[in-house]
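Reopening this ticket.

The earlier resolution said the output was attached, but the attachment link was broken on my side. Pasting everything inline this time so it's all in one place.
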Amino acid sequence: MSIRLISDIHLEPARQAQAQGFIHYLADLPVDTEELYILGDFFEVWIGDDVPHPFVTTIKDALRAVNERGVTIWLMHGNRDFLLGDQFAAESGVNLIDDPTVVTFGDERVLLMHGDSLCTADIEYMKIRDMLRSKAWQAAFLEKTPEERIAFARQARSESQSAQQMKSADIMDVTPADVDLAMQEADVAMLIHGHTHRPAVHDWLYGNQPRQRMVLGDWSDTEGWEIIWNDEDGFTLKNFTLRQ
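Inline output:
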């Protein structure tokens, strides 16, 4: 039995090669795979479940096919697809989970997060995040026409890209003190997240107790990242080539 975790695929119609690679990834999941966790930013942008698109239908079909094979799929919101809702979940066969969530692999309690909430040094982003995650803002946004939502998403993406060019890499990474705080509150020694696009395994001591943080990488048009867990090997961070 194995469990796989991925993050930051950033699916969008403009990247057909990557989407095809992801679909092949799902189809090629080993038969011993019981669960798949997607830790946010599954889509590059999501403006609401009520806006149909052939590209999204294709992705839903691929997810449902894996679910019907017996693989349980868990999906966490990211900073780009926080509006994914119950309709998408029902039509694709995935299960939405909160950010953060604590799960147990074997006898190890693990904190799962998207990761953006840990980037507290980026004060400007944290203010925007609080606004976008509020129920009132989301309800008002979903009342707009699809055309209005698309226009907003394009503008927000352009502004985000411009802002990132002006920020240091450290500001956009996680804040170590907040990592320790989140792990302390969750009572775990293991954290897995994405968002930063800095795949790595970090080990340190906190109060003389070992802790570990595993960071998933983002997917390109040709490569992906995953963490594999099984009883024999524990957790393994892996980079692989997408099949086209």
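Reporter confirms the inline version is readable. The helical segments are 16-27, 54-68, 86-92, 123-132, 135-142, 146-165, 176-186. DSSP finds seven helices and eleven strands in the chain.
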